[in-house]
Amino acid sequence: MARMKAIEAAVAVLKKEGVHIAFGVPGAAINPMYAAMKALGGIEHVLARHVEGASHMAEGFTRTEQDSIGVCIGTSVLLVRI
C-alpha cells in the first residue's frame, strides 16, 4: 500500500476541494506544507507581508472568484513576555 505524509495528504485534500491558490507567510512551522505544495504541484502561493494581510487577500479572492476557495496559510508566532 502506498503511504504519504500527513501534510501531503492535507495538500491533496485542498487540491481535491478545488484550491488552486493560497495566500500566506512561510515560516519554520509551516515549511513542510510549502514543500508538499511544491512537490505535489497545482497550488500557487502568493506571498503576503503578514498573516492579517493574507487573510484579507484570501477573503477578497473568495468574494471575487466564483466557485473558488480562498486559503490563508499562517505560521507559528513566538510570543515573548518581558
Helix and strand element order: HEHEHE
Can you tell me the number of structural domains? 1
Strand content: 5-15%
* CATH homologous superfamily classification: Thiamin diphosphate (ThDP)-binding fold, Pyr/PP domains
Tell me roughly what share of residues is in helical segments: 40-55%
Mean pLDDT: 90
**What is the alpha-carbon Rg in Å?**
14 Å
Q: Structural class of the secondary elements? A: alpha/beta
Number of helices: 3
CATH architecture: 3-Layer(aba) Sandwich
Overall shape: flat
Walk across the major sheet and give the strand order.
Answer: 2-1-3
Distance between the termini: 51 Å
Could you tell me the CATH topology label: Rossmann fold
What does this structure look like?
With 82 residues, the chain is of the alpha/beta class. The protein has one domain (6-73): 3-Layer(aba) Sandwich (Rossmann fold). Helix content is 43%, strand content 13%. The protein has helices at residues 6-16, 31-40, 51-64; strands spanning 21-24, 44-47, 71-73. Strands 2-1-3 form a three-stranded parallel β-sheet, with helices on one face. Helix 1 packs across helix 2. It is flat, with a radius of gyration of 14 Å. The mean pLDDT is 90. GO terms for molecular function: flavin adenine dinucleotide binding; ligase activity; tartronate-semialdehyde synthase activity; thiamine pyrophosphate binding.
